[in-house]
Each structure stands twice: as C-alpha cells, then as structure tokens.
Amino acid sequence: YNHVYGKGKWKDFDPKDLLLTYNALKVLEARYLLKDPNTLRYIETPQMMFRRVAKYLASVELKYGKSESEVKALEEKFYEIMSNLRFLPNTPTLMNSGTRLGILSACFVIPVRDSMTTPEGDGIYDALRAMALVHQQGGGTGFDFSELRPKGDVVASTAGVASGPVSFMKIFDVSTDVVKQGGKRRGANMGVMHVWHAEIEDFINSKSGKLKDVQLQNFNISVGVYDYFMEKVERGEEVPLITPRKTRIPGTDHDYYINKARNYMSEEWAQEEILNELEEKGGAVWLDESKIITVDEALVIAEKEGAIIRWINARSLFNEIVKSAWDSGDPGLLFIDEINRRHPVWYLGKINATNPCGEEPLLPWESCNLGSINLEKFVKETENGKYIDWDGLAETIKYAVRLLDNVIDANKYPLKQIEQATKSTRKVGLGVMGLARMLIKLGIPYDSVDAIYLSYQVAKFIYYHAFKTSIELAKEKGSFPVYDPLRYHDIWESARPFEYLLEVTKVEGKPSEYVRKLTAIVDKLDFSELKAERIKHGLRNATVVSVAPTGTISIIAGTSSSIEPLFALAFIRNVAVGKFMEIDSLFLEYLRKYELDNPEVVKKVAETGTVGENMFMPATIRKLFRTAHEVPPEFHLLHQAAWQQWNDSGTSKTINLRSEEPPETVERVYLMAWKLGVKGITVYRDKSKSQQVIYFGIKK
Ligand code: CDP
To answer: Which end of the chain lies in a sparser environment, N or C, as judged by fewer CB atoms within 10 Å?
Structure first.
C-alpha cells in the first residue's frame, strides 16, 4: 500500500481497497493508476480509479436528458459494481476514461484493400496507419489480408511483381513492436487469410517450423474456413486456390462473380435468409443490385476469367493447418459461415475477420468495447447449502450493459470511419470471468457434465438479461441506427440444444439433480416474449455479449480468467512489470480444510502447478482442482460451445493440450469445433512455444 498511497500517506485509504489482492495492486500500480506527469507520483488510489471511470461514463447520460441527480445515482451504481469487483470493463476503459487518451474499446477490425492507399482510406498503408493509432491507445486490431494479391502476381502500375500478403503482414508486425500500446502494453493483432487464397500455404506456415518464435510475434493468425471446405476435407476432394487480383481493376468495383466464387460458401444461408425475407416482406432484395448465383456457376466464371490459380486436395491443406497448429499453436480457424449465419445484423454485409483474441467478429471499421462479470461473486452459501444469487447477477448485468453502452458515446474515436461504423451498430460485449472458481465454490469439477450444463445455463441467463437491458435502453434512448426489426436475426433461435453438444463430443452422462436445481430459474426464461418486446420497442445494441480472455482484468478482480479452467494451482506469473508467484486462494482454503497447508506441500505443488497425479492428495481436491492441461480437450471445447450458443458475438478460448498429444488430437478438435458451432478455434500444446502472444502465465 505504501507504493500506492505514498509512505505514511493513509488519509485517502478506502477499506474497499482491501478487496484487492496483492497481484491486483501490483498490476494497477504499474499500469492503471494515474500519475502526475511531472513528478510521476500517483494521483489516484484504486477506488479513485473506479470512481473516475464511473463518473465519466455516467456523465454521458446528461446528453440524453438525465438530471444531475439521476446521473449521480447511476455513477453510484457503476462505482458499486466495479469496486465490489462484480464487473470490470476492459483495460482501455479503466486506463483511459476521463483522461486525454480517448479510446475505451479493446477490439477493432480494419479493412485492407489491395492498393497502397485509397481515397476511402482503406489501402494497405492506410490500414497500417489506422493500426498504429489504435495501438497507441491500447486497442487490439484484426485484419483480413485475403484481398491482397498473392506474391509473384502482376502489379500493373509498375509492371512488377507483388510481394504478397504475408510480407505485408511483417510490416504490420514491426510497426506493432515500435508503437507500444499507450506505453503500457504490447499491441495485439489478428491476421486472417481465407482458405481459398492462392498464398494460403505460406500463411499457414508463417509462424511455425523455422519461423516459430521468430516471425509475426505480434500476430495471432487464423485461417478463415467455410462449410464447403470442411465438407471437402471430410470427403478428401479438391478445392480451388484463387487470386483476388482479377477482382481489382483500377477505377472499377470488385468483380462480382469472382467475389462470389470466393464467398461461395455463404450463399446457401444467404439464399435461405432471402427466401424467408421474400416471404415475409413480399419482395425485398438483398445485396442491392446483385443477383445470387450458385457455387458452381461462380466457379465456372472464375475459371474462365483465370482467377483460379490451381486446385488442391482439401484434406492435405487441412493437414498442413493441423501440423502447423500442433507445432506452434498457429493458425487457428475461423468458421466464416457460422460467424455470418449467426451474425444478428447479417444484412449489413459479410464479416471476414475478428479482433486479436477472436471474441469479436466485426464488420470493416467496427469496434467493440468489452466488460466482464465476475461469476465467482455470485456463489452464496447458507446453512441450507450453496446457491447462485440470480437476482444479484441480473442487477449487475443491467448496470454493466448500460455502462458499456455509454462507452460508445464517451469514446474518442481515432478515425471517422471507426466512429461511423461503431455508432451505427453500437455493439457491446458483456462477458464473464471466474467461471473456474465459481465451479470450485459450487463443488463441481470443470471437466464434468454438470459443469458444462452450468455453463450453458449461466450463459443463457446472462444473454437473456443483457438482451432485455438493451431493449429497455432502446425504449429510453432509441435503437442502434441500422436496426431492422424484421431482418435482425435472433440468435437464440439457432442455439443448439445442450444434448447436441454432448452427442458431438461423445461425452456420456446427464446433469445431476443438484445442478438442475441450482439453475432451474433459467428454464423459465421466455425468449419469444423477449422477441416480441424487441420488435415492439427496438434494440439499443446489435450485439450484447462476448466472452473475452480477461487476461488483465481477471488479475485485478482476483479471479480465474474468462471461462478457462485454472491454469496452475501455484505458478510464476511473468508480466511486463516483473515476475511473481501466485497460489490459488481457493486451493489454499481446501488445503487448510484437510490440514495440508504447510509450506512443504505448497512448495511441492508449485513445482508442477498441479495435483491431479499426486496420490497423496485427497480425491476431492484432485478432482476439483484439475488444471488447463489436465482437462481433456473435449471438455475445453464443450465449455466454449456451451457459451457460444448464447452469445451473439464470439467466445475466446484456448484449448490447452498436453505436450505429448499427437497432431491427430488437433485434427479431432478442429473437426469437432466446426460441428459444435463455435465461431473460431485455437489450440495451444503445452511447451510448444517459448512464449505466447498476450498470454503470460509461464508455468515453472
Ligand atoms: O483483461 P483485458 O481487458 O486487459 O483484456 P483481454 O480480455 O485479455 O483482451 C480483450 C481484448 O483486448 C483482446 O481480444 C484484444 O483485442 C485486446 N488486447 C490488446 O489489444 N492487447 C493486449 N496486450 C491484450 C488485449
């Protein structure tokens, strides 16, 4: 505390700061608490930081006609949910609210057209500039590089040859190194290339083999795959590799047909949607001037125009992806059809990329701000047993969504394109942290059917209440500008049932009476009533939830990150500000219960971080405290899939694998992921890299 308050300066001490762990204080002190730029002395305590954020975000409501006292009351609510550590907004909001730096959002997607610069500001070097501006203030950026012509292709203006997307990505990577995010954290990027691209093999291998730990260190990379591709993988059939160059004749628009050839996978759902719409509205046309053609028609045209460079066996391409991911964790996959099928405002265009960790599939120039609820805070205990405080959770969701919606108005956008795109959909992403610790408190092992059921039910509850809040906000302040009540896709209509998830993963068992009773309230939620309300009153935000990794805010909240299992029971945490040892406090509690809390035992556990194989530990502890690498991949996936069903954007998750898992495991996981309807997938095999982008937790 002396660090924060200054030696002997306790007058500002607020007992609420005692809720913060030592690690939380270290992180806040190093990066979040404001300092006087001249003396470098701290000018705020943690509570003052929460107050700054609450005040700044509540003040937005003055613009909506709220009175001073109403705004003050909201400020109190915002302050309360943050200072009790029930909810925290993403890092940029905590750092920048009320300061000179104005970006409060964590997630951005920037378009990259196949030109150096364009009048619209979306050429390669325009994108680079946009990235630098976003990174400077702590945001993360995602790009689809598929529009860039492959290396060796013709460049008309110079009669030379193109260098290709992977070499351009290297420039983005170097620039990321140079521009430290707000001087406080390293910039993060997602680089996407779609599977039809002629340079896809170079992309797949751009971070593995000899290039592992060397190239594109500020990028996570993902291959954008489509249903047609996955089906051809299963059947071992050929797919075309295409150059997008043909589609860009200077001064003209994209060639429609070749565009279609690359996007052909999306047509089936598009047609279905259009048919539905035609039925409903009696004649609206999607894609303005364009007609819909079949996949085969598009391919014939592409072939004729020389856009198909060659054909490749889908299975061998898929094996290359798998091999590379097994080797280094990259690339992950993005399931582009699933992303677009379940995009609530699909009528605005096709999504091709996500932010760095995958929780936000966004349209070009869109940004999204995140915030996460700390689930562990809602486990209560009475003499009659444990229960979940659903009322408290609903109340927290209500103010959290309101706060996130205010962030959109409070944001100072670095570019007008970003402002325009963000303000037209007003996407916000309410997520969670502390799932693993919630489960431990309820006595449910992470890798159990009960845990998956609980995830499914809690996700459904959060989605329901976040959505309901957004309808209420629309009543008060109006819908997002491009809201179309008839075309808006209600994602709950396409949520897969819980049993389906078990079926795909071949996990046997049924949820117990205990967990059914714990979550019985969720079965009473009426989504069709909610839909009627939406149609009647409107909707404030195109998306409302999103499961982010909560890398830093979970440290501030002192809980486990996101929906991940515990990473290690005791480990060394390696962050920009130094190394420190951490022992999970719930684990320590359990050790105490069994009178095992002596330093020798703790030291032993810290050596491996786990107790799963420790025969001397009581069975309860061994089952309840299984860590990330001990949890079978199916259960990692099941949690991700459970949360994704009740999520209108994405669910960030790392499928952690033991180092001895063979490439076949990665293959199985990737295929299962597609069938489970998650929007993207990332694996990380223990010890496969010297360091992970973003994720610190280095196990000793
Ligand atoms: O916990 P915190 O709010 O710091 O962030 P997170 O939940 O771990 O990450 C959320 C998003 O913030 C990521 O998906 C990125 O878009 C962005 N981010 C970033 O740009 N740079 C980082 N070093 C970490 C996160």
So the answer is: C
Q: What is the mean pLDDT of residues 301-324?
A: 89
Would you state the structure tokens that stand for residue 279, as one six-digit string?
């039925």
The contacts of residue 171 (CB under 8 Å, 6+ apart) are 128
Annotated catalytic, 355? yes
Extents of the domains making up the chain = 1-105+368-493+538-564, 107-336, 585-624
HEC readout, 648-692: CCCECCCEEECCCCCHHHHHHHHHHHHHHCCCEECEEECCCCCCC
Report the Cα 392 to chain-centroid distance in Å. 25
CATH of 1-105+368-493+538-564, one of 3.20.70.20, 3.30.565.10, 3.40.190.10, 3.30.70.100: 3.20.70.20
Mean pLDDT: which of 576-590, 646-660, 680-694 is highest? 646-660
Q: Is the ipTM of this complex over 0.85?
A: yes
Residue whose CA is at the smallest distance from ligand 1 atom 3: 90
Mean pLDDT of the chain: 88
3-state secondary structure of 189: strand
- Residue 697: pLDDT band with limits 50, 70, 90: very low
Q: Are 483 and 471 in contact (CB under 8 A)?
A: no
Q: What angle do CA 82, 58, 532 make, to 5 degrees?
A: 90
User: Which amino acid appears at position 635 of this protein?
Assistant: F
- Pick the closest to residue 515 from 458, 463, 461, 564 (CA basis): 458
pLDDT over 80 at 350, yes or no = yes
- Spatial separation of the C-alpha atoms in residues 40 and 426, rounded to whole Å: 37
Is the shortest distance between the CB of 218 and ligand 1 below 6 Å?
Answer: no
Residue 190 CA: nearest ligand 1 atom is 16
Sign of CA dihedral 213, 215, 220, 226: negative
Query: What are the tens digits of pLDDT across the range 157-181?
Result: 777 888 899 999 999 999 999 887 6
Q: Band of the pLDDT at 154, cuts 50, 70, 90?
A: confident
Q: Is 357 a catalytic residue?
A: yes
Q: Which of 90, 418, 575, 649 to mutate to test the pocket of ligand 1 (most atoms within 8 A of CB)?
A: 90
CATH of 107-336, one of 3.40.50.300, 2.40.160.10, 1.20.1730.10, 3.20.70.20: 3.20.70.20
Strands 578-583 and 655-657: unpaired
* Cα–Cα distance for residue pair 336/666, rounded to 1 Å: 19
How many whole angstroms from 547 Cα to the centroid of ligand 1?
11
Q: Which amino acid is at 484?
A: D
Q: Which amino acid is at 419?
A: E
**Predicted local confidence at residue 181, as pLDDT:** 66
Provide the pLDDT confidence category of residue 10 given band limits of 50, 70 and 90. Answer: low
pLDDT in tens, 529-576: 999 999 999 999 999 999 999 999 999 999 999 999 998 897 766 666
Verify whether ligand 1 is closer than 6 Å to residue 502 (CB atom). no
**Can you tell me which atom of ligand 1 is nearest the CA of 90?**
3
- Tell me: pLDDT of 483 over 70: yes
Q: Where are the beta strands (DSSP E) in 546-669?
A: 570-575, 578-583, 655-657
